[in-house]
Request: fold
Amino acid sequence: MKINIAIDGPAAAGKSTIAKILAKKLNYTYIDTGAMYRCVAYFALKNHVDPQDEMKVCQLLKDIHIDMKADKIYLNGEDVSKKIRENEVSMQASSVSRYKDVREFLVSQQRQLAKNGGFILDGRDIGTVVLPDAKLKIYQVASIECRALRRHKENIERGLESNLEEIKAEIESRDYQDMHRDISPLKKADDAIEIDTSNMTLEEVSQTIYKLVTERVNELC
Ligand code: DC
Reply:
């Protein structure tokens, strides 16, 4: 039996890294919902539409088609997996995620994708809005220092320019915006299990969640 797993939490908490490890271990399908908001922001920027202009951004939705295949994300057939990770796109993804039409457009696709069991979705509103019936909900957090340092190291490993203080400021302002928006703000679902990964290795986090999944599946069988 396969269940659906929701992983929510603030920016750069390592949700996608853990979700990918778990998906492999469990033979589940991983859906990166943040990448979908990033696609909307990227598409607006590419078409010279101001991401702060709600009406104009929402008018673009009819021309946006997102596909996910084998760890890659395609926007209208173009592989945008790398481009959507750029700093400007991160901040603007948070901005466009405030809009009702954008959320409805993406949430309905996310629910459709995960309509059967066996999916791991990570994001901000998975346990609260997208999959309120998910059989396991994780709220993954880590201190701001830890999150910024991990992102900084990742950038350096990838050969990207990186400034620790700038990363910290960007993460903090994105979290503030994601937690204080009117629609589906980031918050822990009442029935979510909080895991603070600040002092944990990837192996420890994935083992902890893996154990929770097997326990939950056994309970349900
Ligand atoms: O997970 P991420 O950092 O790639 O997400 C980018 C932005 O998208 C994030 O700052 C807020 C938004 N987002 C959201 O509102 N709801 C989700 N389920 C996932 C992401």
